[in-house]
Design brief:
Helix content: 25-40%
Distance between the termini: 44 Å
Number of helices: 2
Radius of gyration: 15 Å
Number of domains: 1
Number of strands: 5
Structural class: alpha+beta
Shape: globular
Order of helices and strands: HEEHEEE
Strand content: 25-35%
Strand order of the largest sheet: 2-1-3-4-5
């Protein structure tokens, strides 16, 4: 797996921009997050959403879109929501799947989106 501490600032900015966009897309309505593809070629960023009958199809279509792109993007990510199990608890999460680059191809991000629990006094 790729080491997050060895990534370029440009790559990390791209990934966190994707994460910010995903969080902002569902922060008011709570989701679901429509899967989206964010790409960067040179200085140009592009974002496309994939609305499909089955949620998983949107993710697959986004992956195929990147494979078919010419020229290939410098960076590409797919963002989608789902669940992650951590220490035997299930959490809502946003997933970022990075799709390009020899060092970063296997680097994915997950952000817990479960509502914060507040203590009653």
């Amino acid at each position: 797996m790729a080491d997050i501490n060895k990534q370029t600032p440009e790559f990390m900015d791209f990934m966190f921009n994707g994460l910010d966009h995903g969080v902002n897309s569902i922060s008011d309505g709570g989701g679901p997050l429509v899967p989206f593809l964010m790409t960067k070629i040179g200085d140009k960023k592009e974002l496309k959403r994939f609305v499909t009958e089955r949620y998983e199809e949107g993710i697959a279509v986004a992956e195929q879109t990147v494979k078919d792109m010419t020229p290939k993007p410098d960076f590409a990510l797919i963002a989608f929501d789902g669940f992650i199990t951590w220490e035997e608890k299930k959490y809502d999460a946003i997933f970022l799947k990075h799709l390009t680059g020899h060092k970063t191809k296997d680097l994915n991000f997950v952000k817990d989106m479960s509502p914060k629990q507040t203590e009653m006094e």
